[in-house]
# Entry
Amino acid sequence: MVTTYWPSRHSGRSTASTPGGGDDAVAIRASVANSVYTGSGSDALTIEADVVESVYTGATSSEPAAAKNASDDDAVAIRARSVDSVYTGAGRDAVAIEADLVSSIYTGADGDSLSVTAGAVHGIHTEGGDDTVVIDAVMGSSRIHVWDQQGYSSNPSTNNSTDDTDAAEARIVKNGPVRTWSPGEIAEKKTADAAAIAGTEFATLAVELKARIAPQIAEQARAAERTPEEAIVAQRLREAQAIYADVHLGAGNDALSVRVDEVISVKGGRGDDSIAIGGGTVALHYEAGDGNDRISVAAGASVAVQLQGDMAYSASWDGDALVLQLGNGSMRIDGAAKAAAIGVMKWGGREPAILHMAPPLDRTA
Ligand SMILES: [Ca+2]
Ligand SMILES: [Ca+2]
Ligand SMILES: [Ca+2]
# Structure
Protein backbone atom coordinates (compact mmCIF):
# COMPACT_ATOMS: atom_id res chain seq x y z
CA MET A 1 0.00 0.00 0.00
CA VAL A 2 1.22 3.47 -0.81
CA THR A 3 -0.11 6.35 1.23
CA THR A 4 0.78 9.99 0.81
CA TYR A 5 -0.26 12.55 3.36
CA TRP A 6 0.13 15.99 1.90
CA PRO A 7 -2.01 18.30 3.95
CA SER A 8 -2.09 21.98 3.25
CA ARG A 9 0.82 23.87 4.65
CA HIS A 10 -1.38 25.49 7.28
CA SER A 11 -3.32 22.43 8.33
CA GLY A 12 -1.23 21.96 11.45
CA ARG A 13 -1.26 18.56 13.07
CA SER A 14 -1.15 15.46 10.92
CA THR A 15 -1.71 11.97 12.24
CA ALA A 16 -1.09 8.98 10.04
CA SER A 17 -1.88 5.42 10.86
CA THR A 18 -1.63 2.45 8.52
CA PRO A 19 -1.55 -0.51 10.90
CA GLY A 20 -1.57 -4.04 9.72
CA GLY A 21 0.54 -6.34 7.63
CA GLY A 22 2.06 -5.54 4.30
CA ASP A 23 4.89 -3.32 3.21
CA ASP A 24 3.70 0.25 3.45
CA ALA A 25 5.19 3.28 1.75
CA VAL A 26 4.14 6.41 3.58
CA ALA A 27 5.10 10.00 2.86
CA ILE A 28 4.02 12.77 5.21
CA ARG A 29 4.48 16.48 4.89
CA ALA A 30 2.97 18.59 7.62
CA SER A 31 3.62 21.24 10.21
CA VAL A 32 3.32 18.65 12.99
CA ALA A 33 3.50 14.90 12.32
CA ASN A 34 2.23 13.21 15.46
CA SER A 35 1.59 9.52 16.24
CA VAL A 36 2.58 7.82 13.00
CA TYR A 37 2.11 4.04 13.06
CA THR A 38 2.94 1.90 10.04
CA GLY A 39 2.42 -1.52 11.65
CA SER A 40 4.16 -4.75 10.68
CA GLY A 41 5.88 -5.35 7.37
CA SER A 42 8.94 -3.71 5.86
CA ASP A 43 7.79 -0.13 5.67
CA ALA A 44 9.26 2.92 3.98
CA LEU A 45 8.38 6.16 5.74
CA THR A 46 9.36 9.69 4.79
CA ILE A 47 8.42 12.69 6.90
CA GLU A 48 9.05 16.37 6.30
CA ALA A 49 7.69 18.53 9.11
CA ASP A 50 8.51 21.19 11.66
CA VAL A 51 7.77 18.90 14.59
CA VAL A 52 7.74 15.09 14.54
CA GLU A 53 6.49 13.20 17.58
CA SER A 54 5.92 9.48 18.14
CA VAL A 55 6.74 7.39 15.10
CA TYR A 56 6.39 3.63 15.40
CA THR A 57 7.12 1.29 12.50
CA GLY A 58 6.75 -2.01 14.38
CA ALA A 59 3.67 -4.19 14.72
CA THR A 60 0.87 -2.63 16.72
CA SER A 61 -0.73 -4.30 19.72
CA SER A 62 -3.85 -5.28 17.77
CA GLU A 63 -1.89 -7.42 15.30
CA PRO A 64 -1.42 -11.20 15.59
CA ALA A 65 1.50 -12.56 17.64
CA ALA A 66 3.30 -13.71 14.47
CA ALA A 67 3.38 -10.14 13.18
CA LYS A 68 4.58 -8.81 16.52
CA ASN A 69 7.49 -11.25 16.55
CA ALA A 70 8.55 -10.60 12.95
CA SER A 71 11.83 -8.84 12.21
CA ASP A 72 10.77 -6.36 9.59
CA ASP A 73 13.31 -4.09 7.92
CA ASP A 74 12.01 -0.54 7.90
CA ALA A 75 13.41 2.52 6.19
CA VAL A 76 12.67 5.86 7.87
CA ALA A 77 13.81 9.28 6.67
CA ILE A 78 12.87 12.40 8.62
CA ARG A 79 13.67 16.04 8.06
CA ALA A 80 12.29 18.37 10.68
CA ARG A 81 13.09 21.05 13.20
CA SER A 82 12.36 18.82 16.15
CA VAL A 83 12.11 15.01 16.28
CA ASP A 84 11.10 13.11 19.41
CA SER A 85 10.32 9.42 19.95
CA VAL A 86 10.97 7.20 16.94
CA TYR A 87 10.77 3.42 17.36
CA THR A 88 11.63 1.04 14.53
CA GLY A 89 11.66 -2.23 16.50
CA ALA A 90 13.22 -5.54 15.44
CA GLY A 91 14.67 -5.99 11.98
CA ARG A 92 17.56 -4.36 10.17
CA ASP A 93 16.24 -0.82 9.97
CA ALA A 94 17.71 2.13 8.11
CA VAL A 95 16.97 5.45 9.77
CA ALA A 96 18.13 8.90 8.67
CA ILE A 97 17.22 11.98 10.68
CA GLU A 98 18.07 15.59 10.05
CA ALA A 99 16.79 18.09 12.60
CA ASP A 100 17.81 20.84 15.01
CA LEU A 101 16.61 18.83 18.01
CA VAL A 102 16.67 15.03 18.11
CA SER A 103 15.67 12.91 21.11
CA SER A 104 14.52 9.38 21.97
CA ILE A 105 15.38 7.27 18.93
CA TYR A 106 15.14 3.50 19.39
CA THR A 107 16.09 1.23 16.49
CA GLY A 108 15.44 -2.01 18.38
CA ALA A 109 17.01 -5.43 17.90
CA ASP A 110 19.19 -6.48 14.94
CA GLY A 111 21.92 -4.59 13.12
CA ASP A 112 20.50 -1.19 12.24
CA SER A 113 21.92 1.71 10.33
CA LEU A 114 21.29 5.17 11.81
CA SER A 115 22.40 8.57 10.59
CA VAL A 116 21.68 11.71 12.63
CA THR A 117 22.54 15.25 11.58
CA ALA A 118 21.44 17.55 14.36
CA GLY A 119 21.92 20.64 16.45
CA ALA A 120 21.31 19.02 19.84
CA VAL A 121 20.85 15.30 20.28
CA HIS A 122 20.18 12.87 23.12
CA GLY A 123 18.40 9.62 23.82
CA ILE A 124 19.83 7.60 20.91
CA HIS A 125 19.48 3.85 21.51
CA THR A 126 20.44 1.39 18.78
CA GLU A 127 20.06 -1.57 21.18
CA GLY A 128 21.08 -5.16 20.33
CA GLY A 129 22.76 -6.20 17.09
CA ASP A 130 25.82 -4.87 15.26
CA ASP A 131 24.71 -1.33 14.48
CA THR A 132 26.28 1.24 12.20
CA VAL A 133 25.77 4.81 13.41
CA VAL A 134 26.83 8.21 12.12
CA ILE A 135 26.29 11.31 14.29
CA ASP A 136 27.11 14.84 13.17
CA ALA A 137 25.88 17.41 15.68
CA VAL A 138 26.57 20.62 17.53
CA MET A 139 26.33 18.80 20.84
CA GLY A 140 24.75 16.13 22.96
CA SER A 141 22.21 17.76 25.23
CA SER A 142 22.59 15.47 28.27
CA ARG A 143 25.29 17.78 29.50
CA ILE A 144 22.70 20.45 30.25
CA HIS A 145 21.52 18.12 33.02
CA VAL A 146 25.08 17.92 34.30
CA TRP A 147 25.36 21.65 34.58
CA ASP A 148 22.09 21.73 36.44
CA GLN A 149 23.48 19.26 38.91
CA GLN A 150 26.42 21.51 39.47
CA GLY A 151 24.00 24.31 40.20
CA TYR A 152 24.30 26.22 36.97
CA SER A 153 20.89 26.40 35.44
CA SER A 154 20.59 27.17 31.78
CA ASN A 155 17.30 28.87 32.48
CA PRO A 156 17.45 30.74 35.81
CA SER A 157 14.09 32.43 35.31
CA THR A 158 12.33 29.06 35.44
CA ASN A 159 14.62 27.37 37.88
CA ASN A 160 11.97 25.05 39.28
CA SER A 161 12.32 22.77 36.30
CA THR A 162 14.40 19.68 37.00
CA ASP A 163 14.71 18.94 33.31
CA ASP A 164 16.46 21.79 31.65
CA THR A 165 16.87 19.94 28.41
CA ASP A 166 13.12 20.16 28.06
CA ALA A 167 13.24 23.78 29.13
CA ALA A 168 15.83 24.59 26.51
CA GLU A 169 13.92 22.70 23.86
CA ALA A 170 10.71 24.43 24.85
CA ARG A 171 12.48 27.72 24.44
CA ILE A 172 13.56 26.81 20.93
CA VAL A 173 10.12 25.58 19.96
CA LYS A 174 8.41 28.55 21.59
CA ASN A 175 10.63 31.26 20.20
CA GLY A 176 11.43 29.74 16.85
CA PRO A 177 9.40 30.84 13.86
CA VAL A 178 6.61 28.41 13.01
CA ARG A 179 7.19 27.50 9.44
CA THR A 180 7.11 24.62 7.01
CA TRP A 181 10.08 23.58 4.96
CA SER A 182 9.71 23.95 1.24
CA PRO A 183 11.30 21.21 -0.89
CA GLY A 184 13.95 23.71 -1.97
CA GLU A 185 14.76 24.61 1.62
CA ILE A 186 15.01 20.97 2.56
CA ALA A 187 17.44 20.32 -0.26
CA GLU A 188 19.44 23.33 0.88
CA LYS A 189 19.37 22.17 4.48
CA LYS A 190 20.49 18.73 3.49
CA THR A 191 23.65 20.10 1.98
CA ALA A 192 24.28 22.68 4.70
CA ASP A 193 27.72 22.34 6.22
CA ALA A 194 28.57 21.95 9.88
CA ALA A 195 29.23 25.67 10.23
CA ALA A 196 25.59 26.38 9.50
CA ILE A 197 24.47 23.96 12.17
CA ALA A 198 26.90 25.58 14.59
CA GLY A 199 24.94 28.80 14.15
CA THR A 200 21.80 27.37 15.75
CA GLU A 201 20.46 28.68 19.01
CA PHE A 202 21.92 25.67 20.80
CA ALA A 203 25.41 26.76 19.93
CA THR A 204 24.60 30.19 21.38
CA LEU A 205 23.19 28.53 24.48
CA ALA A 206 26.42 26.58 24.94
CA VAL A 207 28.44 29.78 24.82
CA GLU A 208 26.15 31.42 27.39
CA LEU A 209 26.48 28.47 29.73
CA LYS A 210 30.25 28.47 29.43
CA ALA A 211 30.44 32.13 30.36
CA ARG A 212 28.21 31.58 33.37
CA ILE A 213 30.41 28.86 34.86
CA ALA A 214 33.76 30.54 34.12
CA PRO A 215 34.29 31.75 37.73
CA GLN A 216 33.74 28.23 39.10
CA ILE A 217 36.27 26.85 36.61
CA ALA A 218 38.90 29.29 37.82
CA GLU A 219 38.21 28.37 41.46
CA GLN A 220 38.40 24.63 40.76
CA ALA A 221 41.72 25.07 38.94
CA ARG A 222 43.15 26.90 41.95
CA ALA A 223 41.91 24.17 44.29
CA ALA A 224 43.44 21.41 42.12
CA GLU A 225 46.73 23.27 41.66
CA ARG A 226 46.59 22.97 37.91
CA THR A 227 48.38 25.15 35.44
CA PRO A 228 46.04 27.43 33.46
CA GLU A 229 46.48 25.18 30.40
CA GLU A 230 45.63 22.07 32.43
CA ALA A 231 42.62 23.81 33.94
CA ILE A 232 41.20 24.54 30.50
CA VAL A 233 41.71 20.94 29.39
CA ALA A 234 40.23 19.56 32.63
CA GLN A 235 37.16 21.74 32.19
CA ARG A 236 36.71 20.65 28.60
CA LEU A 237 36.77 17.00 29.69
CA ARG A 238 34.47 17.68 32.63
CA GLU A 239 31.93 19.37 30.39
CA ALA A 240 31.41 16.08 28.60
CA GLN A 241 30.37 14.32 31.81
CA ALA A 242 26.83 12.99 31.93
CA ILE A 243 25.00 10.55 34.14
CA TYR A 244 23.23 9.05 31.16
CA ALA A 245 24.97 9.05 27.79
CA ASP A 246 23.48 10.83 24.78
CA VAL A 247 24.16 7.83 22.52
CA HIS A 248 23.79 4.16 23.53
CA LEU A 249 24.99 1.60 21.00
CA GLY A 250 23.67 -1.34 23.04
CA ALA A 251 24.97 -4.90 22.85
CA GLY A 252 26.80 -6.09 19.76
CA ASN A 253 29.93 -5.06 17.91
CA ASP A 254 28.86 -1.60 16.84
CA ALA A 255 30.50 0.97 14.59
CA LEU A 256 30.06 4.66 15.32
CA SER A 257 31.39 7.71 13.54
CA VAL A 258 30.77 10.83 15.61
CA ARG A 259 31.64 14.51 15.17
CA VAL A 260 30.42 17.41 17.30
CA ASP A 261 31.25 21.08 17.70
CA GLU A 262 30.94 20.91 21.48
CA VAL A 263 30.59 17.75 23.58
CA ILE A 264 28.64 14.51 23.43
CA SER A 265 28.58 11.34 25.55
CA VAL A 266 28.56 7.82 24.13
CA LYS A 267 28.15 4.41 25.71
CA GLY A 268 29.40 1.63 23.46
CA GLY A 269 28.10 -0.99 25.90
CA ARG A 270 28.64 -4.74 25.56
CA GLY A 271 30.65 -6.00 22.64
CA ASP A 272 33.80 -4.83 20.87
CA ASP A 273 32.88 -1.49 19.36
CA SER A 274 34.68 0.68 16.83
CA ILE A 275 34.27 4.40 17.40
CA ALA A 276 35.74 7.08 15.15
CA ILE A 277 35.81 10.57 16.69
CA GLY A 278 36.02 13.23 14.02
CA GLY A 279 35.85 16.35 16.19
CA GLY A 280 34.78 17.88 19.48
CA THR A 281 35.01 16.32 22.93
CA VAL A 282 33.48 12.88 23.29
CA ALA A 283 32.88 11.19 26.64
CA LEU A 284 33.08 7.43 26.34
CA HIS A 285 31.17 5.69 29.12
CA TYR A 286 32.64 2.34 30.06
CA GLU A 287 31.73 -0.18 32.73
CA ALA A 288 32.78 -3.74 33.61
CA GLY A 289 31.90 -6.15 30.78
CA ASP A 290 31.95 -3.54 28.01
CA GLY A 291 34.56 -5.44 26.00
CA ASN A 292 37.57 -4.39 23.98
CA ASP A 293 36.77 -1.22 22.10
CA ARG A 294 38.81 0.36 19.34
CA ILE A 295 38.73 4.14 19.16
CA SER A 296 40.26 6.45 16.60
CA VAL A 297 40.50 10.14 17.35
CA ALA A 298 41.10 12.91 14.82
CA ALA A 299 43.80 15.48 15.44
CA GLY A 300 42.49 18.24 17.70
CA ALA A 301 39.56 16.23 19.10
CA SER A 302 39.33 15.18 22.74
CA VAL A 303 38.32 11.98 24.52
CA ALA A 304 37.05 11.76 28.09
CA VAL A 305 36.83 8.15 29.22
CA GLN A 306 34.12 8.07 31.90
CA LEU A 307 34.44 5.00 34.09
CA GLN A 308 31.33 3.76 35.78
CA GLY A 309 31.47 1.86 39.01
CA ASP A 310 34.65 1.26 40.97
CA MET A 311 37.03 0.29 38.18
CA ALA A 312 40.82 0.33 38.25
CA TYR A 313 42.60 1.31 35.07
CA SER A 314 46.09 1.54 33.67
CA ALA A 315 47.37 3.31 30.58
CA SER A 316 50.34 2.76 28.26
CA TRP A 317 51.44 4.14 24.90
CA ASP A 318 51.85 2.00 21.80
CA GLY A 319 53.19 4.32 19.14
CA ASP A 320 50.63 7.10 18.78
CA ALA A 321 47.96 4.94 20.40
CA LEU A 322 47.00 5.07 24.06
CA VAL A 323 45.98 1.68 25.39
CA LEU A 324 43.80 1.56 28.50
CA GLN A 325 43.33 -1.61 30.49
CA LEU A 326 39.90 -1.32 32.07
CA GLY A 327 39.21 -4.22 34.40
CA ASN A 328 38.91 -7.30 32.15
CA GLY A 329 38.41 -5.14 29.06
CA SER A 330 40.33 -2.50 27.20
CA MET A 331 40.16 0.56 25.05
CA ARG A 332 42.73 1.32 22.38
CA ILE A 333 42.73 4.96 21.27
CA ASP A 334 44.50 5.30 17.93
CA GLY A 335 45.74 8.80 17.13
CA ALA A 336 45.78 9.78 20.81
CA ALA A 337 49.17 11.46 20.46
CA LYS A 338 47.68 14.08 18.14
CA ALA A 339 44.46 14.56 20.12
CA ALA A 340 43.83 17.84 21.94
CA ALA A 341 43.33 15.91 25.16
CA ILE A 342 42.72 12.43 26.56
CA GLY A 343 41.45 12.06 30.09
CA VAL A 344 39.88 9.58 32.47
CA MET A 345 37.20 10.52 34.94
CA LYS A 346 34.65 8.94 37.20
CA TRP A 347 31.11 10.11 37.55
CA GLY A 348 30.97 12.35 40.59
CA GLY A 349 34.74 12.84 40.61
CA ARG A 350 35.36 16.52 40.13
CA GLU A 351 38.81 16.35 38.57
CA PRO A 352 39.62 14.22 35.52
CA ALA A 353 43.05 12.61 35.26
CA ILE A 354 44.74 14.06 32.18
CA LEU A 355 46.64 11.32 30.30
CA HIS A 356 47.57 13.46 27.35
CA MET A 357 47.25 17.06 26.27
CA ALA A 358 48.56 18.77 23.17
CA PRO A 359 51.58 20.96 23.83
CA PRO A 360 50.83 24.68 23.82
CA LEU A 361 51.46 26.44 20.54
CA ASP A 362 54.98 27.80 20.20
CA ARG A 363 54.27 31.50 19.90
CA THR A 364 57.82 32.27 18.82
CA ALA A 365 57.66 29.99 15.80
CA1 LIG B 1 15.98 -2.77 14.44
CA1 LIG C 1 24.20 -2.51 19.17
CA1 LIG D 1 32.03 -2.03 24.03
User: Anything to note?
Assistant: The radius of gyration is 21 Å. The chain has two domains: 1-208, 226-365. Confidence is low (pLDDT under 50) at residues 6-11, 145-183, 189-197.
